[in-house]
TrEMBL record:
Domain Acetyl-coenzyme A synthetase N-terminal: from-to ranges: 55-110
Magnesium as UniProt keyword: no
Molecular function as annotated in GO: acetoacetate-CoA ligase activity; ATP binding
Record protein name field: Acetoacetate-CoA ligase
Keywords: ATP-binding, Ligase, Nucleotide-binding
Family to which this protein belongs: Belongs to the ATP-dependent AMP-binding enzyme family.
UniProt region (Disordered), positions on chain: 1-28
Acetylation is among the record's keywords: no
Coiled-coil ranges per UniProt: none
NCBIfam families reported for this sequence: ac_ac_CoA_syn, PRK03584.1
Pfam assignment, any one: ACAS_N
PROSITE patterns: AMP_BINDING (PS00455)
Biased composition annotated in UniProt, kind: Polar residues: 1-10
C-alpha cells in the first residue's frame, strides 16, 4: 500500500503560484455579498467605524480585537440572557480568562427559543434491518420537544438533582437523548455522553471519573442491519460502577425496539416513558406562566464533559463552558456557515463524538436536525434516500466515509440531491480525490467544507465560510475569532505554505475550563493533578499559546480568504484511524489486562512489551500498527494475533483493532523510562532514524528495526 508523504516531505507542498493549478477552485459562493459573513462585516464596520472589505481583514480584526468581536457576536446572533459589561480581560494563554464575567445565560434556553408546533425540531431515522426494511421516521416539533424537556426537568428535579451534578448517557442517537441533554443543562447539570458502541470498560473509565447521578441508556442499537442488545453492556457497566467505585446512579431506559429483550431488565431501572410521565405529574421546575425555569448561570458555567484519550493515563475529561459553547456555535453556524431556520441539518455521528454536540447546537438556529442510528454504508443508498425524502440541505460526515463511499456508490446517478447546499467532512484530512468525488458524484455546486477543531475545543479552529471559495484539497479558512497560526518546533511562526504545529495565539471563549474535577468538585489533590494535566496537554509545548497537536500547513491568502489550511495528521501519539481518535493507552490497558507477564495464560500468550502508532495512508487516513515484544525465542503465532484482536474488539471497539500486529525485538524508552511513540511513528512514516534525538533514549539501537519494518510497510 502506498503511503502519504511524511511531514518532512510535505515542505515540498506546491507554492502559491503552482497551487493555482494544483488546487483549483471547485466552488464559488453564489452570492457572497448576501452572505451572513458579509452582513456581519457591515455591522462591524458601522459599529466600530471601520472599512473592512475582505474575509481576511475581518479575520485579522476579529483576532486582534477579541473583546469587540465576541461582544458583537453575542448581539448579532441574538443570544438570550444578560450580557453584562465585561467581555474578557487582556491576558495571554495559558491564563484562561473569565469571559463575560457578569453574564447570566443558559445554553438549553437558547436551544429552545423556537416553540412552534409547526416547525420540526428533530427527525430520527434508523438503519433498515431485515425485520424492519422501512423503519418509520420519528419526529418532534419544537413545541413537543419543549414539552418533553420540561417533563424531564421535573423528573430530574424530583430526584433531587441540582446545578453541577452530572447526568450521563450511554445511548444511541435518538430524540430522547437530545431531550435528556437539554433537560440536564436547562437546570445547570453537567452532561456527559458515551456512545453505545463503546465497550463497558471504556465507559467505566470515563464515568468513574465524573460520578454521574443519573444514566440514560437505550435498550438496543441498530448497526450493520442488525439489532444489538445494549442492556447486557449496561449491566456490566453498572456492576463495575457499583462494585469498584460505589457509584449507584438512577437508570432510565429508552426503548428503541418494539420488543425489548426479556430477562435482562433490573427492577431498579425506570423506563423513559414512566420517568417523563412522573415528571409531568410532579410538574416541578416551571414558572407561574408554565415556562421551564431555566437555571441561568455564569457564562463560564460547566456545560458538558467530553473525553479525549491521550497516549498515557485515563481519558482526559475536558470540561466545556456553557456560554463558550453557545457563542462559538452561533458564530460557526449562523455567521460562518450561514445556516438558517429553513435548513435541514444532518451529521453522521454517534453520541460520543463532539460532532453530536456540534449538530444539536443547530437547535439554536431553529432549523430541523436529522439524527441517525446505524451504519452509513451497509446500504450506501440509504442516507441519500433520506437526503431526498427529508430535504436535507446540510450533510455532515467524515473523510473516511466519503472515501469509502467513493469506492462503493455514485449517489448522483440514483438520487435527486438538489436540496443539498453544504457538505462537511472531518475526523481526518479530506483527500483531494475525495473533493473530486463529491463534486462529480454527489453535487457539482455545493459548498464542500473540510472542518477541523476537535474534542478539546468542541468546535472548530478552521473550516467553513459561505462567503469564500473552496479550493481542492484545502480547508477554506481559519474561523473568525480564532487566532490560529502554525509554529516551527522552535515556537516561531512557520510562515505560509510551510508545515508546522497548529497553535492558537489568543484566548477564545470555547477554550475548555479545564479537566475534571474543577475546583470545588473534588479533593484538592485531584483538582491540582487535573490542572497540571490540563496545562501539560495544551500549554507546555510552546510558551503562551494553545498547542493543539495537529500538524498543518496554512496556505498563502487567495481571494481574500486569509489562507486556507491543509491538515497533515496528528503530531503526538494519538491514534486516529478512520477519523476515530483514541489514545494508545486504550490498547495498552487491554494488553496489560489479558497478555502481560502477570495476566497471560501462558508464556506463548505473553506480550512482554508493546507500542502502537498510526501510519499515514495515501488517502490521508491512517491505520494502527501494534508492535509487540514477546519472550525470548517466542514467535508471534496467528492464535495470539487473533486473541489480541478479539480482546481489543470486545473490550474496546472494532475501531480499536490494529490493522497490523508485528513482532519486534525491543520497544524504545526515554532515559526516564517513558515508552516513546512519536519517534516510532515518524520512522514508520518514512523519517530517517537520524531525525530522532538518540541522546534522550535508553535503547536507540532498536530504532533500526522500525526503520526496516517501516520500509516494508510502505511497499
Ligand atoms: C471538528 C473535528 O476536528 C472533529 C474531530 O476530528 O474530532
Amino acid at each position: 500500500m502506498a503511503i502519504h508523504p511524511n511531514s518532512s516531505v510535505v515542505n515540498d507542498h506546491p507554492t502559491p503560484e503552482s497551487r493555482q493549478t494544483a488546487n483549483p477552485i471547485l466552488h464559488k459562493p453564489f452570492n457572497a455579498r448576501d452572505s451572513a459573513t458579509v452582513r456581519f462585516t457591515h455591522k462591524i464596520n458601522k459599529k466600530y467605524g471601520l472599512a473592512l472589505k475582505s474575509y481576511e481583514q475581518l479575520l485579522n480584526w476579529s483576532t486582534t480585537h477579541i473583546d469587540a468581536f465576541w461582544s458583537t457576536v453575542w448581539d448579532e446572533t441574538g443570544i438570550i440572557g444578560d450580557k453584562g459589561q465585561h467581555v474578557v480581560d487582556d491576558v495571554q494563554p495559558p491564563l484562561n480568562p473569565q469571559w463575560f464575567g457578569h453574564a447570566k445565560v443558559n445554553w438549553a434556553e437558547n436551544m429552545l427559543w423556537c416553540r412552534s408546533p409547526e416547525k420540526t425540531a428533530l427527525i430520527q431515522a434508523t438503519e433498515p434491518t431485515p425485520d424492519l426494511p422501512n423503519p418509520p421516521l420519528k419526529s418532534v416539533s419544537y413545541a413537543q420537544l419543549y414539552d418533553l424537556v420540561s417533563g424531564v426537568v421535573s423528573a430530574l428535579l424530583s430526584l433531587g438533582l441540582k446545578p453541577g451534578d452530572r447526568v450521563a448517557s450511554y445511548s444511541s442517537n435518538c430524540i430522547e437523548n437530545v431531550a435528556a441533554c437539554l433537560a440536564a443543562t436547562a437546570m445547570g447539570c453537567i452532561w456527559v455522553s458515551a456512545a453505545a458502541d463503546f465497550a463497558p470498560d471504556g465507559v467505566f473509565e470515563r464515568f468513574q471519573q465524573i460520578r454521574p447521578a443519573v444514566i440514560f441508556a437505550v435498550d438496543a442499537v441498530v448497526y450493520n442491519a442488525r439489532v444489538h442488545p445494549h442492556l447486557p453492556k449496561l449491566s456490566t457497566l453498572l456492576k463495575d460502577l457499583s462494585d469498584r467505585a460505589s457509584i449507584n446512579p438512577t437508570v432510565v431506559i429508552i426503548h428503541t425496539i418494539p420488543q425489548p429483550p426479556v430477562g435482562e431488565w433490573s427492577a431498579n431501572w425506570t423506563s423513559w416513558e414512566h420517568f417523563v410521565q412522573e415528571g409531568r405529574v410532579r410538574n416541578l421546575g416551571r414558572t407561574e406562566t408554565g415556562e421551564i425555569q431555566w437555571s441561568r448561570q455564569s457564562f463560564d458555567w460547566p456545560l458538558w464533559i467530553l473525553f479525549s484519550s491521550g497516549t498515557t493515563g485515563r481519558p482526559k475529561p475536558i470540561v466545556h463552558r456553557a456560554g463558550g459553547m453557545l457563542l462559538q456555535s452561533m458564530k460557526e453556524l449562523s455567521i460562518c456557515a450561514d445556516i438558517t431556520p429553513d435548513d435541514v441539518f444532518f451529521y453522521y455521528t454517534t453520541t460520543g463524538w463532539m460532532m453530536w454536540n456540534f449538530l444539536i447546537s443547530g437547535l439554536a438556529v431553529g432549523c430541523t436536525l436529522v439524527l441517525y442510528d446505524g451504519s452509513p454504508l451497509k446500504d450506501p443508498s440509504h442516507l441519500f434516500r433520506l437526503v431526498h425524502e427529508l430535504g436535507i440541505s446540510i450533510f455532515g460526515t467524515s473523510a473516511k466515509y466519503i472515501d469509502a463511499l467513493s469506492k462503493a456508490y455514485k449517489p448522483r446517478d440514483h438520487h435527486d440531491l438538489s436540496s443539498l447546499r453544504h457538505m462537511y467532512s472531518t475526523g481526518s484530512p479530506l483527500a483531494p480525490a475525495s473533493f473530486d468525488f463529491v463534486y462529480q458524484h454527489i453535487h457539482p455546486q455545493i459548498l464542500l467544507a473540510s472542518i477541523t477543531g476537535g474534542t478539546d475545543i468542541c468546535s472548530l479552529f478552521a473550516g467553513v465560510s459561505s462567503a469564500l471559495p473552496v479550493y481542492r484539497g484545502e480547508i477554506q479558512c481559519r474561523m473568525l475569532g480564532m487566532a490560529v497560526d502554525s509554529f516551527t518546533p522552535e515556537g516561531t511562526p512557520s510562515g505560509n505554505d510551510t508545515a508546522g504545529e497548529l497553535v492558537c495565539l489568543k484566548p477564545f471563549p470555547c477554550m475548555p475550563l479545564g479537566f475534571w474535577p474543577l475546583p470545588g468538585y473534588g479533593p484538592e489533590e485531584a483538582v491540582t493533578a487535573a490542572q497540571a494535566r490540563f496545562h501539560e496537554s495544551y500549554f507546555s509545548q510552546f510558551k503562551g499559546v494553545w498547542y493543539h497537536g495537529d500538524h498543518v500547513l496554512i496556505t498563502a491568502s487567495q481571494e481574500g480568504n486569509g489562507g486556507g489550511m491543509i491538515m497533515l495528521g496528528r503530531s503526538d501519539g494519538v491514534l486516529n484511524p478512520g477519523g476515530v481518535r483514541f489514545g494508545s493507552a486504550e490498547l495498552y490497558d487491554v494488553i496489560e489486562l489479558c497478555f502481560s507477564r502477570s495476566t497471560a495464560a501462558s508464556k506463548e500468550e505473553t506480550v512482554v512489551d508493546y507500542v502502537a502508532v498510526g501510519q499515514r495512508l495515501e488517502d490521508g487516513d491512517e491505520r494502527v500498527i501494534l508492535f509487540v515484544k514477546l519472550h525470548e525465542g517466542q514467535r508471534l503465532s496467528s492464535a495470539l494475533e487473533r486473541r489480541l484482536k478479539e480482546e481489543l474488539r470486545s473490550r474496546r471497539s472494532p475501531r480499536h483493532v490494529p490493522a497490523k500486529i508485528i513482532q519486534v525485538q525491543d520497544v524504545p524508552y526515554t532515559l526516564n523510562g517513558k515508552r516513546v511513540e512519536v519517534p516510532v511513528k515518524k520512522i514508520i512514516n518514512g523519517a530517517p532514524v537520524s531525525s530522532v534525538n538518540s541522546a534522550t533514549l535508553q535503547n536507540p539501537e532498536c530504532l533500526a528495526e522500525y526503520s526496516r519494518l517501516g520500509e516494508e510497510l510502505r511497499v
